[in-house]
Task: structure prediction
Amino acid sequence: MARLEPLSIDAVDDETSDLLSPRERAAIRFAEKLAVDHHKVDDALWSELRAHFSEAEIVELVAHATLYIGFGRFNEIVGVDPASR
Result:
């Protein structure tokens, strides 16, 4: 199992970080746009994803991102605070 070092975790908050690969930056940009306003996932971003991921990987990325976005919204709606567990 891959381990993330604390600096790598912090880098996720800064998509321009040199600690992230171009592939990771593309995935983060996609997930952020998808979470905030899925209409802003434009052709340019799809092209960027295709430059770094296979079609199967993109499907998996979309599936995971939408599931976690949904879980987060569910928790917010019903008042679950994951940090309190």
Q: What stands out?
A: The mean pLDDT is 86. The radius of gyration is 14 Å.
